[in-house]
Design brief:
The chain is α+β, with helices and mostly antiparallel strands and about 160 residues long. It is built from 5 helices and 5 strands. The strands form 2 sheets. Strands 1-2-3 form a 3-stranded antiparallel sheet, with no helix packed on it. A two-stranded antiparallel sheet has the order 4-5.
Length: about 160
């Protein structure tokens, strides 16, 4: 896809959102069905189901998906798609590229070993490895723009209000 095609696809959508802001409110939903016989959940995804369970650091055997890894996969995917859109809109040709998301969490918090240890990822690092025709300064601006418009990065950086029912 080139910049002109992307703009022509997005122009009517952007105009609709300008005219009817409520139309831009996109519902998102995920579900996890709890296992009956094991400590696991099945998560329906776009292309099948993923079974998630305990990480080996919390007593799992490593055969089931880890929710923290799934979160990092969402960050990497969103950043990658956003970067590709930014590159396309900028007319920058990408020869190859990867976004690597890495995180850390302390199992002591998750297992309740030490209540002073936070539960959850406490650090996430994104690395962009891109072979393209942009100079280093332009590439840096593209990554900054990606950070600004990546839904998952912005959600993690500015957490939403969460209600549990």
């Amino acid at each position: 896809m080139d910049a002109e095609t992307l703009r022509s696809l997005q122009a009517p959508i952007k105009q609709r959102y300008r005219e009817t802001p409520d139309a831009a409110l996109v519902p998102a939903r995920a579900e996890a069905r709890m296992g009956i016989d094991d400590v696991a959940c099945v998560v329906p995804t776009w292309h099948g189901e993923t079974k998630a369970g305990l990480h080996p650091a919390a007593g799992g055997d490593g055969t089931l998906a880890c929710s923290a890894d799934m979160l990092l996969e969402a960050v990497a995917a969103c950043a990658g798609v956003t970067f590709r859109a930014v590159a396309t809109a900028s007319g920058v040709k990408i020869r190859s590229g990867r976004v690597i998301a890495e995180g850390k969490w302390d199992a002591r918090g998750t297992l309740g070993v030490d209540r002073s240890v936070p539960v959850g990822l406490t650090e996430i690092k994104l690395r962009f490895e891109v072979d393209c025709d942009a100079d280093p300064a332009k590439l840096a601006r593209m990554i900054e723009t990606t950070e600004r418009y990546c839904v998952i990065l912005q959600t993690l950086g500015n957490p939403p209000r969460i209600r549990v029912e």
